[in-house]
């Protein structure tokens, strides 16, 4: 190998940025859920359903990014 391999850096950035964004997103959604529950306690069931749906979608994006990063790490499709 004659060049510098930046694949580990790319994979770590892909997984790290996705994890950071997922944690921030779930934190914001959780705080808004608690705020909405405190304002209108009778809507807890509806808000809880929507909270878990959004948390699942947010975690799903992180898991997909992790899967793509691990795929690149094990079999690099960009290497000639």
UniProtKB/TrEMBL annotation:
<feature type="transmembrane region" description="Helical">
    <location>
        <begin position="6"/>
        <end position="30"/>
    </location>
</feature>
<feature type="transmembrane region" description="Helical">
    <location>
        <begin position="51"/>
        <end position="73"/>
    </location>
</feature>
<dbReference type="InterPro" id="IPR038662">
    <property type="entry name" value="ATP_synth_F0_csu_sf"/>
</dbReference>
<dbReference type="Pfam" id="PF00137">
    <property type="entry name" value="ATP-synt_C"/>
</dbReference>
<keyword id="KW-0375">Hydrogen ion transport</keyword>
<comment type="similarity">
    <text>Belongs to the ATPase C chain family.</text>
</comment>
<keyword id="KW-0472">Membrane</keyword>
<protein>
    <recommendedName>
        <fullName>ATP synthase subunit c</fullName>
    </recommendedName>
</protein>
<comment type="function">
    <text>F(1)F(0) ATP synthase produces ATP from ADP in the presence of a proton or sodium gradient. F-type ATPases consist of two structural domains, F(1) containing the extramembraneous catalytic core and F(0) containing the membrane proton channel, linked together by a central stalk and a peripheral stalk. During catalysis, ATP synthesis in the catalytic domain of F(1) is coupled via a rotary mechanism of the central stalk subunits to proton translocation.</text>
</comment>
<comment type="function">
    <text>Key component of the F(0) channel; it plays a direct role in translocation across the membrane. A homomeric c-ring of between 10-14 subunits forms the central stalk rotor element with the F(1) delta and epsilon subunits.</text>
</comment>
<dbReference type="InterPro" id="IPR035921">
    <property type="entry name" value="F/V-ATP_Csub_sf"/>
</dbReference>
<dbReference type="InterPro" id="IPR020537">
    <property type="entry name" value="ATP_synth_F0_csu_DDCD_BS"/>
</dbReference>
<keyword id="KW-0406">Ion transport</keyword>
<dbReference type="InterPro" id="IPR002379">
    <property type="entry name" value="ATPase_proteolipid_c-like_dom"/>
</dbReference>
<keyword id="KW-0138">CF(0)</keyword>
<feature type="site" description="Reversibly protonated during proton transport">
    <location>
        <position position="59"/>
    </location>
</feature>
<keyword id="KW-0066">ATP synthesis</keyword>
<dbReference type="InterPro" id="IPR000454">
    <property type="entry name" value="ATP_synth_F0_csu"/>
</dbReference>
<keyword id="KW-0446">Lipid-binding</keyword>
<keyword id="KW-0813">Transport</keyword>
<keyword id="KW-1133">Transmembrane helix</keyword>
<feature type="domain" description="V-ATPase proteolipid subunit C-like">
    <location>
        <begin position="9"/>
        <end position="71"/>
    </location>
</feature>
<keyword id="KW-0812">Transmembrane</keyword>
<keyword id="KW-1003">Cell membrane</keyword>
<dbReference type="InterPro" id="IPR005953">
    <property type="entry name" value="ATP_synth_csu_bac/chlpt"/>
</dbReference>
